[in-house]
Amino acid sequence: MEVITTSKIYNNSLTKYSRFKTREVMVGNIGIGGNNPIRVQSMTTTDTMDTKGTVEQSIRMIEAGSELVRITAPAVKEAKNLENIKNELRARGYDTPLVADIHFKPDAAELAARIVEKVRVNPGNYADKKKFKVFSFTDELYNEELERIYEQFSPLVKICKEYGTAMRIGTNHGSLSDRIMNRYGDTPIGMVESALEFVRICRELNYHEIILSMKSSNTQVMVEAYRLLVNRMIEEGMNYPLHLGVTEAGDGEDGRIKSSVGIGTLLEDGLGDTIRVSLTEDPEFEIPVCKRIVERYNNRDDHKPIVEVYTEIPYDPFSYQRRKTYETDKIGNHHVPVVILSLDAKKLSEPSSLEKISYSYSKELDKWNIGDLAPDFIYLGANDLPYALPGTLKKIFDYSLWKTLEDKSDSFPLFTPAEYLTAERRSYRINFVSVTINELTPELLKAVKNDKFCVLVINTSNQHGMGEERRAIIELMQQGIETPVIISRSYADIDDEDLTISSATDLGALLIDGIGDGIWIKAENNIDVVNRVSFGILQATRTRISKTEYISCPSCGRTQFDLQVTTAMIKKRTDHLKGVKIAIMGCIVNGPGEMADADYGFVGSGPNWITLYRGKEVIERGIPYPEALDKLIGIMKEDGIWVEN
């Protein structure tokens, strides 16, 4: 049998769950990688000079389950105070390893490496140039820059080696150096190369206590970068552990969805040795989310076998491109993925029943108002509604009922494979066919391939459902079948938080690969929750933008204002701006770089002072905090994107 070519390898298998084996790196008394479990961690938000406050917050994090505690050290004085924090924690009986978060200051890193168990450096900021200048780097100039980096970085490596300190080399999408930007662009491969430049220095000095990360607020970029990193490590004989995270994921449900999409997609493929969920909330609230994500992979190895992919992957796992399909009545091809909801017709006796899913009816005007989170189809099984729906909302019925309807203009059938193959009547617009991987028989595939009005609904009950649904769709691609596909998953006896995390991972992982022309989450949870989560997944995967996106950092000791209060304030004034991306950053470290592809930025530049950005361009500096939001809205008005709520 022909195996997958090396050029596309990034994990052990596309269909069988197994952890990608990395080397073990000890961080104090905690092993990361190797045969160790996936570790969970978070970062303090206190001022590092506030010893008592940082210790108290660290303890809350540890007692919530954080296995490592990261603390910012922006300068030497904060790095020095890490010793006081560590001593107080040890005196109070806590031996959890501490991690110093370093960006611009090599001297702070070198001091911290003598105190804590691990230091984190960002290659784009550490001893590197980031002026956002565009010019040509000749090979000679590029090599000169690498020599300069060696001189600046090698002292830290030697100290870490001497003191037994681990290091995370953590690349961020938006903080790549000018050298990387001009040669590779703001790309996943640029992120990978940025980290590997530093890794090669470590290897030259025979230092291997390294953990790597590739963070971005864009889940597509983040996943592609980690996959490319593993691919490159395989090629170069490396196997360093991976720290996973979606940077500036935001808060609440959206933050959990975005984190689950990015982190979960990689964990589904067996990648990842430690995770941090970056929420704009108190850090101890991140840990339960981390735990729920990680718990999904306990005993995952025992899943029902799925046929392996023995030929070349029919898509590029390192570059997003949507699977090619034909168009079936606005499903597939260039259309955004649709949302299907299962509803109980008996509970929808009045039009007002649909208000929870963004359809509100005015009886006086006999008019429907349609919101941004309005689903495209509702599945009603064998029961109809006693009133007409708005033209944008269509009904799906079991074939047994659909075929008896006199008026089929606003409804479509859902077939079993057997019903589809023997049906006397089919729709001339859309025929939904519900299948599992085992039902994709040659007879059915032949019929589907010749029916341009068919849409397949792929279902699975496999514990490793993402792998099974991926395998089913790869089979379609290998046979040249361009039928649109709805990704469907069922969840029973699950609370809202687990539904959010599980569905975002299961469905998001496929959407990240360009697979899926619609999603259908089947759950008994309140329908407004299922609907919001459905649209949240599409938003987080950048496949259907239906609301304002907020890229907000999780706060730390560098933050210049209250991020949680500020994020809520900005959301209240701007959450009606569909498709606009607003970055809310607590400090300049997470300023123009970390915002990456945001449209506008609200960045702390000093205690209660704000700098406003359009993209990565500074619009105005030194704005008093109370005036900044009005000025930001004024800029949006000047740009013509503001609409009144």
Notes on the protein architecture:
- The protein is built from 17 helices and 25 strands.
- Helix 14 packs parallel to helix 15.
- The strands form five sheets. An eight-stranded parallel β-sheet has the order 8-7-6-5-4-3-10-9. An eight-stranded parallel barrel has the order 11-14-15-16-17-18-19-20.
- The longest helix has 25 residues.
- With 645 residues, the chain is an alpha/beta fold.
- The chain is 34% helix and 19% strand.
- Helix 12 links the parallel strand 17 and strand 18.
- It is globular and about 80 Å long.
- The N terminus is likely disordered.
Brief write-up:
This protein has 645 residues and is of the alpha/beta class.
Keywords:
single chain; 645 residues; alpha/beta; 8-stranded parallel beta barrel; 17 helices
State the strand order across the main sheet: 8-7-6-5-4-3-10-9
Q: What is the end-to-end distance?
A: 60 Å
The coarse silhouette is globular
Q: Report the structural category.
A: alpha/beta
Largest sheet: 8 strands, parallel
Mean pLDDT: 90
User: What fraction of residues sit in β-strands?
Assistant: 15-25%
Number of helices: 17
How large is the radius of gyration? 26 Å
- Total DSSP E strands: 25
Helix content: 25-40%
Regions with pLDDT < 50 over 5+ consecutive residues?
1-5
Task: List the SSEs and their pairings.
Layout: E1 25-27, E2 30-32, E3 39-43, H1 51-64, E4 68-72, H2 76-91, E5 98-102, H3 106-112, E6 118-121, H4 139-163, E7 166-172, H5 178-184, H6 188-204, E8 210-215, H7 219-236, E9 243-244, H8 252-268, E10 274-275, H9 286-295, E11 338-342, E12 359-362, E13 367-370, E14 377-381, E15 394-398, H10 399-402, E16 411-415, H11 417-422, E17 431-435, H12 442-449, E18 454-458, H13 465-478, E19 485-491, H14 496-512, E20 518-523, H15 527-540, E21 549-552, H16 563-574, E22 581-585, E23 600-606, E24 609-614, E25 617-624, H17 625-639
Helix pairs in contact: 1-2, 2-3, 4-6, 5-6, 6-7, 7-8, 8-14, 8-15, 13-14, 14-15
